Structures are given as C-alpha cells and as structure tokens.
C-alpha cells in the first residue's frame, strides 16, 4: 500500500508536467481510437456485403453504361434467382452541392428480393410501386432534411439535365450494417422516360445490374457465363462479387485507409517518446533519493517498481480517459460520415489494442530510467545533484 502511495506522490511532484503528459496520452488514445475505428469500420462494411450478390458492370469502367437489352439475356443464365438494375443519378437537393447524397434509379420490383436488408414497410412499398414518380429514402437522410411521407421533393442532377420531381412515399431502415440510411431511390422507368426526352442515346441504358444467385460457391461460374455472353460485343461486361466490386469502386480509399493505419502507429511512437522523456527527467531529478533509499535497505526491484509504477500510472490515467472520450467523439463523427460509412463504431479489438499500447508505453518509457537506477551505486547517487 505504501508503494502505491509513494507512486502517486511522485507523479504529483511536477503537476504541470504530469498533467501535460497525461493530456498527450489522452489525445493520442482518442486519435488512435478514431483512426483504427475508421480502418476497421471500412473493412467491416465491406465484409458485411452479401456473398449471394454479383455485380455486372461495363468491363471498361464503371462510368460506362450497359444496354437495357442485356437484362433478358442475363436472366436466362442458370443459377440466378433475381435481378435488379441501377443508374447513378448524382442528385442535389435545392441545387446546392452541399446537399449532395447518394441517389439512384432502380428497377424492377424484384429489387426488394435482391436487397432484403432494405427494410420498407409493406404499405409504403405498395405506394412506391403504384406511382412512377414515387421515391423512398433512408431514415438518416429524411432526418437530415426534415422530410416527411407525402412530401414533394425537387432534385437536380450533377450528371443529367432537367428538373426532377418526386413524391416521398417511403422511409427505409437498414436491416444490416452493410446498408446505409442516407440514400434516395426512385423508379428507373421514370428516369428512362425523362432521359429519352433529351436524347435517345441516353435512354435504355443501365449503370449496372445486380443479380442474386442461389449458391455463393457458384459465383465464379455464373459470372463467367454472363461475361461470355457479351464477349466481343460493343459493351463487354465484367461480373464480380459485390465485395470485389465495392473494393474496386473505392480502391482510391484503400490507400487512404493504409496511410491512416500507419499514422495510428506513428502517433503511439510519438507519445512513447514524450512519456519516456518525462520519466527520464523525473528519474534524473531523483537519483540522490534513489541512492538514499538504497542506503535504507531498499532493493533495486523496489526502485524499479516505483519508476515503472509511476510511468504506468501516468500512461494509464491519460490513456483510459482517452478511450472513454473516444466513444462519444466516435459517435458524433460517425453521424457526420454516415454517407461514407454504414458502420462506424469502436469495436472490442480496438479497445484491447489500446489497452495493450498503454501498458507497452508505460513499460517502455520506464525501461531506461529503471535500468539506470538499478545499476547506480550509492556513492554515484549521493554525488549527483539531479
């Protein structure tokens, strides 16, 4: 008990220095928690994607369309359960770039079978299927703009000309973490009808097809069969799993995620140096005290315990505060990044790693001062002026 009391007293000798070091440790753990949550959430959001879905897109690039006529040929491929198709719309609310959100034209009614995790009440689903200008949106998107069921919504597009009018008839919720609640969906038929008024070249094209297959183990076989149908055509296809499609579509983000991972470990290294410097300064100031303790019969392991205990105390208090504060901060940032992350939560592995790093920083920071105290003779210590 007296050891703990002495450790606390030693840590409180230079209150400002100790407080600043704890604050640095706290900020480090907050930053580490946020960065690792970003990287882990990114991987998890992709891992949650269904293995039963395949994406059929243009083999040249995702930005090029596919003919709508491909639909009937794809449906005849064995092993396919349902098929849906989408076009990226790039909608803006009130013609303001700050009011951007994911918006897509979709069809046909089988989309709810392809994506069962889009939870839309049956009555709202029926209302959506009745009207060509009907639309449904995610709960978070509705909350963002204060929309309500039955509201007329006017959008412009960053890609297509004209003014687009919709009636909000449904609000969907996410049935799985892989689904966001910030998207806006409307009928492909209405989308195609409006585009045909501007240019026939724009009409009757699909951005990508999504198919649901019976057996995930047959994904490669089904994908190859589809791609073989359109081989050497004017618009060849590339069929891949939903996970592979998401990774290729967001490949630029993978580099950022990697950099964030590296940055998180660099931050740990920096605070290690800061705490090591603090402990070295503290030990240097107490050399004569350690020598006096040795004359009173204290063994080297007693001194090591005092130094290591103080280091772990400083790292522990600051680190635990950082972990505690990381939860509300992560929640707030997760709401802000909801358009990019369907899942943004601190998981248990992040907490465990943070605790391990706190302990490591505490031990490593005390290593050199403890070694020096052990090797110091009483005469050398009493000669020191600190």
Secondary structure elements and pairings:
Blueprint lengths: L1 H10 L3 H33 L5 E6 L7 E2 L2 H6 L4 E9 L2 E3 L9 E5 L3 H4 L3 E2 L2 H9 L3 E5 H7 L6 E6 L6 E11 L9 E4 H11 L6 E2 L1 E6 L5 H11 L7 E5 H8 L1 H35 L1 H9 L4 H37 L11 H28 L2 H6 L3
Parallel strand pairs: 5-10, 7-9
Antiparallel strand pairs: 1-12, 1-13, 2-11, 3-5, 3-12, 4-8, 6-9, 7-10, 8-9
Helix pairs in contact: 1-12, 2-10, 2-12, 2-13, 10-12, 10-13, 12-13
Overall residue-averaged pLDDT value: 84
The number of domains is 2
C-alpha end-to-end distance = 27 Å
Query: What is the H-and-E element order?
Result: HHEEHEEEHEHEHEEEHEEHEHHHHHH
- Sheet having the most strands: 11 strands, mixed
Strand content: 15-25%
Instruction: Kindly name the structural category.
Output: alpha+beta
Number of strands: 13
Rg result: 30 Å
Helix percentage: 55-70%
What shape does the CA trace take?
Answer: elongated
> Could you name the ranges where pLDDT drops below 50 across 5 or more consecutive residues?
none
| H/I helix tally | 14
Structure description:
By secondary structure, the protein is of the alpha+beta class. It folds into two domains: 2-46 and 252-383, no CATH class; 65-234, no CATH class. The chain is built from 14 helices and 13 strands. The chain has helices spanning 2-11, 15-47, 70-75, 111-114, 122-130, 139-145, 188-198, 219-229, 242-249, 251-285, 287-295, 300-336, 348-375, 378-383; strands spanning 53-58, 66-67, 80-88, 91-93, 103-107, 118-119, 134-138, 152-157, 164-174, 184-187, 205-206, 208-213, 237-241. α2 (15-47) packs antiparallel against α10 (251-285) and α2 packs antiparallel against α13 (348-375). The longest helix has 37 residues, at 300-336. It is elongated and about 95 Å long. The mean pLDDT is 84.
């Amino acid at each position: 008990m007296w050891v703990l009391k002495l450790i606390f007293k030693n840590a409180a000798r230079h209150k400002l220095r100790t407080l600043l070091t704890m604050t640095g440790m706290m900020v480090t753990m907050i930053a580490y928690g946020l960065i690792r949550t970003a990287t882990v959430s990114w991987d998890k959001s992709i891992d949650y994607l269904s293995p039963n879905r395949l994406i059929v897109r243009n083999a040249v690039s995702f930005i090029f369309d596919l003919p709508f006529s491909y639909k009937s040929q794809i449906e005849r491929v064995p092993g396919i359960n349902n098929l849906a198709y989408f076009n990226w719309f790039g909608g803006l609310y009130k013609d303001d770039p700050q009011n951007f959100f994911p918006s897509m034209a979709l069809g046909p009614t089988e989309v709810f079978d392809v994506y069962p995790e889009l939870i839309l009440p049956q009555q709202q689903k029926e209302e959506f299927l009745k009207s060509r200008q009907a639309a449904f949106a995610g709960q978070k998107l509705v909350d963002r703009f204060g929309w309500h069921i039955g509201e007329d919504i006017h959008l412009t597009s960053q890609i297509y000309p004209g003014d687009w009018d919709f009636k909000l008839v449904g609000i969907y919720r996410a049935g799985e973490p892989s689904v966001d609640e910030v998207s806006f969906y409307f009928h492909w038929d209405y989308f195609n009808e409006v585009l045909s008024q501007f240019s026939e070249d724009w009409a009757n094209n699909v951005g990508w097809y999504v198919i649901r297959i019976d057996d995930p183990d047959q994904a490669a076989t089904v994908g190859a069969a589809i791609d073989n149908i359109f081989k050497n055509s004017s618009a060849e296809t590339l069929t891949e799993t939903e996970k592979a499609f998401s990774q290729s579509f967001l490949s630029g983000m993978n580099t950022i995620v990697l950099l964030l991972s590296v940055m998180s470990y660099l931050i740990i290294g920096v605070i290690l140096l800061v705490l090591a410097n603090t402990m070295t300064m503290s030990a240097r100031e107490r050399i004569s005290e350690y020598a006096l303790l040795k004359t009173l019969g204290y063994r080297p392991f007693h001194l090591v315990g005092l130094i290591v205990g103080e280091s772990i105390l400083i790292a522990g208090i600051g680190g635990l505060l950082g972990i505690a504060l990381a939860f509300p901060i992560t929640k707030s940032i997760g709401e802000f990044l909801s358009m990019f992350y369907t899942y943004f939560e601190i998981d248990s592995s992040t907490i465990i790693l943070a605790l391990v790093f706190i302990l490591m920083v505490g031990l490593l920071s005390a290593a050199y001062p403890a070694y020096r105290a052990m090797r110091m003779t009483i005469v050398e210590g009493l000669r020191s002026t600190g």
